[in-house]
UniProtKB/TrEMBL annotation, chain A:
Keywords: Molybdenum, Oxidoreductase
Domain named Aldehyde oxidase/xanthine dehydrogenase a/b hammerhead: residues: 23-137
SMART domains on file: Ald_Xan_dh_C (SM01008)
Name used for this protein in its record: Xanthine dehydrogenase family protein molybdopterin-binding subunit
GO molecular function: iron ion binding; oxidoreductase activity
Domain of life: Bacteria
Automatic annotation (TrEMBL), chain B:
Protein name (record): (2Fe-2S)-binding protein
Keyword Ribosomal protein on entry: no
Taxonomic lineage: Bacteria, Pseudomonadati, Pseudomonadota, Alphaproteobacteria, Rhodobacterales
Keyword Oxidoreductase in record: yes
Domain 2Fe-2S ferredoxin-type: 5-81
InterPro entries named in the record: 2Fe-2S-bd, 2Fe-2S-bd_dom_sf, 2Fe-2S_ferredoxin-like_sf, 2Fe-2S_ferredoxin-type, 2Fe2S_fd_BS, Beta-grasp_dom_sf, Diverse_Oxidoreductases
Gene3D superfamilies registered for this protein in UniProt: 3.10.20.30, [2Fe-2S]-binding domain
Length: 796, 162
């Protein structure tokens, strides 16, 4: 809670992006249309699992306005396969062609592509492509995937268990024999999809003369996207430019190079024409990427006072049909950080990831979303089993200030976090005894009120050390440049690309703080790989620490040169006692800063236009660049609390109150941080309560429209009260920690806690999301009948 | 349905003579034929509300409307809202309280509430939330949009009273 002595960092500046977005002047992918652009439309599999016997495109090709129809065999001539084979024990290497050639693996798998003069014609033609299939058995659940003799989703693998890792620290089994109780709890998080308001799309423009690809694509990670495109098209990285326009939301769905995008790029080169593709909403919901479908079972060995002596986790993730990321990538983080805010030395996990005939999984905002539900749900189950106050069970296990820094059983290092403080802050704000009185009175009238708590330890910035330890190739570093132009104008760039968060103001603030100017006078350029330095893009909660931190350090480097030149101009021996403040060079005299009359513009003019007057050893120009690798991991923390009421007759859930105490260190811009906190909570609640990707037993996706995949509207979402805390991280520039995913972790966990608290009087518990009104009503009606939680797939 | 026909559209006060296929949606004609790309297409099945424009002053889904149906109607898109260069009270409130993030749904929300606030000058929160339920926002969680609409209403009442 230390107030940092910053003047630009921490300002509540409105976002630079807003003016263009509010007036319809934002420029998104579909707003770019060079002359002569062709449009691609994909022919998609109607089956979950089938061999491709023949593709007849004669009728489609004959349609006026159609330029061509292409299949996996064509793409194999122009592109290389995607092979993922990181040296991780228990992880099978996988390889896929650019478009399927032999068989399709999920409902929506692309089998051919039509290129035509416009999108209407392309879709007409796609309907005329006749594909003959031999239907194969569809694997539509993790259990079916692991069953003896199950059909293989990937014919190159020995079975559908694509990844299996286990780990043990201490001796959890021995702790079970010493324990007063062993409490087993199950958690089923259903299949989600990202559903950004702007679907995927790209515009590939092949410059035949220069032999250069310009790829316009909304991407969170422009440089890794460029690397992947170049590599798979057989081009050099100096023959590809990726340009990301404004992005209408991404949430993790716009990181990997997908098959459709590579296909479009290859077609632009083949046809020497700009080719455009924008998926429709049906494609986005069925064939972009999915997330989350994970079952966890915990076994907690506990003392009579609720202290957890040992903990076991069994996790199974239904990964879908294809791996665009190493299959262990998301599940592993859950297992690594599960114990979060608690002291648990004896811990073991067993993590299985299986392939099924569904759309492949990708990281969705908070890939580790289930973590806090599993840990806090385990705590609540322990409290329930031992008839203890759930808050007391949290306290008896919590990491306190004296325990930090704390090395988790998995080796992860927690420091500068405040889980006990955020817990006590929300407990005090809720007024627990008063709530319990209200709850009791309501119950007497037959009404069901519930109160939940959920503490979150959010892994935010993944440094290179984390990737190295995980065996995943890649880096967590970031790169930036800061340039003061001859006029004194400040330009800067970084390898991140925002997708709606509003990076332009907070990152300008990081530059302004490091350099000594006003944030309003800094422009940060992102998204163009010819402009930005090679960085790792936007993922997780790394934007502020990796992006802001690198820009801050780089701006300090530029400031040092500015002051060295200023010292020369002022005929002072060194820069001690000089500072740049709001664009003016100031000198310390008698304990106070005084103006020197020099401005940044004067210094810039000298640097560029009068270099013979520069101090000895100082090169012309004002152009700094820098890379920075954050610590292996940074953590933010929070505690969520919510009060709900469940309508006994309808199962409808209403929020009476929702609170979050969050400690995310130094914040660059509190307005943007607050927006991320609110948005993350809402996305978590919408997923926990309403959204669900549903496949039927044959693998047909039944949730292909936004009327079926239901995202919460303004009517369902609560106002969120925020209690802000700011313990800086000691290892990062300016003490930044990062945030923006933890809200999802907390929302999922706290709503489960509140629902189960409300259901206690009925003797039932909810273990499978989403908690839709029909599901809650069914659960309420099952009370007393001895019936367990209804199966998730049977949507009442 | 694919043979182009001649139509005349009145958009933001200007009349345009166009030749478009009868099956082409109004959203696509606004964006592709008239270059008015502030109208965004989010779902093409009428649920998300991103493509909301005004037809004769009333909010409507441009993705569920064919351009050929629009002869003789006055169309208003986001490009007409701050035409003088000055943001409206609603647009100002949206930026002041951070009621937008990626901006993709924003034009539809602005147009919906520019009209709604005229008919509902003194709204309460529940009313704003109900009216907003026709527009999906994936980023904000709606809280600051609601706050902005209420703030804009108060600002407009002050302006009207002055």
């Amino acid at each position: 809670m230390t107030a940092a002595p910053f003047t630009q960092i921490g300002r509540a500046l409105p976002r630079k992006e807003d003016a263009r977005f509010l007036t319809g002047a934002g420029r998104y992918l579909d707003d770019i249309a060079p002359k002569g652009t062709l449009t691609a439309s994909f022919v998609r599999a109607p089956h979950a699992h089938a061999r491709i016997l023949a593709i007849n495109a004669e009728a489609a090709r004959a349609l006026p306005g159609v330029v061509g129809v292409f299949t996996g065999k064509d793409l194999a001539l122009w592109t290389t396969n995607l092979r993922l084979a990181p040296p991780i024990e228990g992880l099978h290497p996988v390889e896929m062609t650019t478009l399927p050639i032999d068989k399709v693996r999920f409902h929506g798998d692309p089998v051919a592509v039509v290129v035509a003069r416009d999108r209407y014609l392309a879709e007409d033609a796609a309907e005329l492509v006749d594909v003959t299939y031999e239907v194969l058995p569809a694997i539509t659940s993790a259990a079916a995937a692991l069953a003896e003799g199950a059909a293989l989703v990937d014919d190159a693998l020995p079975d559908n268990l694509v990844s299996h890792q286990s780990f043990s620290a201490g001796n959890p089994l021995a702790r079970q024999t010493e324990a007063a109780r062993v409490v087993e709890t199950q958690f089923d998080l259903h299949r989600h999809t990202h559903a950004p308001m702007e679907t995927r799309g790209c515009l590939a423009d092949w410059d035949r003369g220069r032999e250069h690809l310009i790829m316009h694509i909304g991407t969170q990670a422009p440089h890794p996207m460029r690397s992947a495109l170049a590599s798979r098209l057989g081009l050099s990285e100096n023959q590809v430019t990726v340009i990301s326009p404004d992005i209408g939301g991404a949430f993790g769905q716009k990181i990997a190079l997908y098959r459709e995008e590579l296909t479009v790029a290859a077609l632009a080169r083949h046809l020497a024409r700009p080719v455009h593709w924008r998926e429709d909403r049906l494609e986005n919901l069925t064939a972009a990427s999915h997330a989350r479908e994970t079952r966890c079972v915990t076994r907690a060995a506990v003392r009579a006072d609720g202290r957890i002596l040992g903990l076991e986790l069994k996790l199974t993730e239904d990964f879908g049909a294809y791996c665009f990321y190493p299959a262990n990538y998301m599940a592993r983080v859950i297992a690594m950080i599960l114990t979060g805010p608690y002291k648990i030395a004896d811990y073991a996990f067993d993590v299985k990831v299986v392939l099924t005939n569904k759309c492949g999984n990708g990281p969705m905002r908070a890939p580790m979303a289930i973590t806090s539900w599993v840990m806090e749900g385990t705590i609540d189950a322990v409290a329930h089993a031992l008839r203890l106050d759930p808050l007391d069970v949290r306290r008896v296990n919590a990491l306190g200030p004296a325990d930090l820094p704390y090395r988790m059983a998995t080796g992860e290092l927690l420091e500068d976090i405040t889980p006990l403080e955020t817990l006590e802050a929300v407990v005090a704000a809720v007024g627990v005894p008063e709530f319990r009185a209200r709850q009791k009175a309501a119950l007497a009238e037959g009404r069901l009120l519930g109160l939940g708590f959920c503490s979150v330890v959010e892994s935010t910035t993944y440094g290179s050390g984390f990737y190295k330890a995980a065996g995943i190739p890649g880096s967590g570093h970031e790169a930036a440049w800061v340039r003061i132009e001859p006029s004194g104008a400040v330009n800067a760039s970084v390898g991140l690309m925002g997708s709606g968060q509003g990076y332009e103001s907070p990152l300008a603030q990081a530059v302004a703080e490091g350099l000594g100017v006003m944030a309003e006078d800094v422009n940060v350029h992102m998204g163009n790989t010819d402009v930005a330095p090679y960085g790792m893009g936007s993922r997780g909660g790394r934007g502020a620490t990796a992006g802001g931190g690198t820009l801050f350090l780089c701006a300090q480097k530029a400031r040092d040169k500015v002051l060295a030149i200023a010292a020369g101009m002022l005929q002072i021996n060194d820069t001690e006692g000089l500072r740049l403040f709001e664009g003016r060079v100031e000198l310390m005299r008698g304990g106070a800063w005084e103006p020197t009359g020099l401005t940044l513009a004067d210094v810039a003019k000298c640097a560029y236009l009068d270099p013979t007057n520069l101090p000895e050893g100082v090169d012309p120009g004002l152009d700094a660049s820098l890379t920075y690798d954050p610590p292996p991991m940074t953590y933010s923390n929070a505690t969520h609390a919510c009060e709900i009421e469940i309508d006994r007759a309808t199962g409808a859930l209403r929020f009476d109150r929702y609170l979050v105490a969050e400690d995310c260190g130094t914040v660059l811009n509190p307005i943007v941080v607050q927006g991320q906190q609110q948005g993350a909570v809402a996305m978590g609640l919408s997923g926990a309560l309403y959204e669900e990707v549903i496949y039927d037993a044959t693998g047909q996706n039944l949730t292909a429209t936004l009327a079926d995949y239901t995202i919460a509207s303004a009517v369902e979402m609560p106002n969120i009260e925020l209690i802000a805390m700011h313990t800086p991280n000691r290892r990062t520039p300016a003490g930044i920690k990062g945030m923006a995913e933890g809200g999802i972790m907390g929302a999922i966990g706290v709503i489960a806690g509140a629902v189960n608290d409300a259901l206690v009087p009925l003797g039932v518990s909810a273990q499978a999301m989403p908690f839709t009104p029909p599901r809650l009503r069914a659960l309420i009606r099952s009370a007393g009948s001895g019936a367990p939680d209804i199966p998730r797939k049977e949507r009442p | 349905m694919t043979e182009p026909v001649s139509i005349s559209l009145t958009v933001n006060g200007a009349t345009h003579d166009l030749v478009v296929a009868p099956r082409k949606t109004l959203a696509d004609v606004l964006r592709e034929d008239l270059g008015l790309t502030g109208t965004h297409v989010g779902c093409e099945h009428g649920v998300c509300g991103a493509c909301t424009i005004l037809i004769d002053g009333a909010p409507a889904r441009a993705c569920l409307t064919y351009a050929v149906q629009m002869e003789g109607h006055e169309l208003t898109t986001i490009e007409a809202v701050a035409k003088s260069g000055e943001l409206t009270p609603l647009q100002r409130a949206l930026t002041q309280v951070h009621g937008l993030q990626c901006g993709f749904c924003t034009p539809g929300i602005v147009l919906t509430f520019e009209v709604w606030l005229r008919d509902n000058p003194d709204p309460d929160e529940a009313g704003v939330r109900e009216a907003l339920s026709g527009n999906i926002c994936r980023c904000t969680g709606y809280q600051n949009i609601v706050k902005a609409v209420l703030a804009a209403a108060a600002e407009m009442r002050r302006g009207a009273g002055a």
